[in-house]
Amino acid sequence: MARFGPDTATCEVFTKREGVLAAVGHDLKLRPERFEIEADATSVRARFDPSSLRVAAAMRAGREDPSAVSERDRRDIERSCAREVLEAHRFPEITFASSEVQRDSVRGTLSLHGRELSGDFAVKRVADRAVAEVEIDVRRFGIRPFTAMLGALRVSPMVRVVVTTPWPDV
Questions:
Q1: What are phi and psi of 76, to 5 degrees?
Q2: For the residues of 22-41, what is the DSSP string, one character each?
Q3: How far is CA 12 from CA 24, 78, 85, 163, in A?
Q4: Which of 34, 88, 101, 119 could potentially form a cystine with 52 if both were Cys, beta carbons 3.0 to 4.6 Å apart?
Q5: Contact criterion met (CB below 8 Å) for 149 and 140
């Protein structure tokens, strides 16, 4: 079974802002610093450390704008994600275990924030990489999206997760 981590794979979590004051917030690309993915032709297992989620960049019109978030804001966002949103002290691991693997899709169970939900997602080959993408409604896992300014600025409950690994040899 092939094993991948931050040196050979990426996991990117994309958030969007909404609300009356959305213009003062940032759409973000986040990345966990600590994770492990094991994959072969019949199985996929993954573990992610929610306390290691870091701000990779602010996103503007679908493009990275790394300078849009100050270092102080970056630290505040990362702390809020770990402590308040994901409650990493109570739920120190996010896991995925497949129940069925096809060449272009994977079905399995995601364990997040103390809840388990099953679903499937597409996997596509891009050059020598496997790219999996899924939209997750965090409310289904009992997670309250971040809000500020009495709810006038909030993070959308829908997040997009993109995982990229080397294409596993079959």
A1: -65, -45
A2: GGGS-EEEEEESSEEEEE-S
A3: 23, 14, 17, 6
A4: 34
A5: no
pLDDT number for residue 26 = 80
Question: Are 134 and 82 spatial neighbours (Cβ–Cβ below 8 Å)?
Answer: no
Please name which of 81, 80, 87 lies closest in space to residue 142, comparing C-alpha atoms.
87
> Model pTM greater than 0.85?
yes
Q: Please name each of the domains of the chain with its CATH number.
A: 2-166 (2.40.128.110)
pLDDT computed for residue 164 by the predictor: 97
Q: Which residues of the chain have pLDDT under 70?
A: 19-24, 150-153, 169-170
Per-residue DSSP letter, 77: H
Report the alpha-carbon distance of residue 79 to residue 86 in Å, rounded.
10
Average pLDDT for the chain: 91
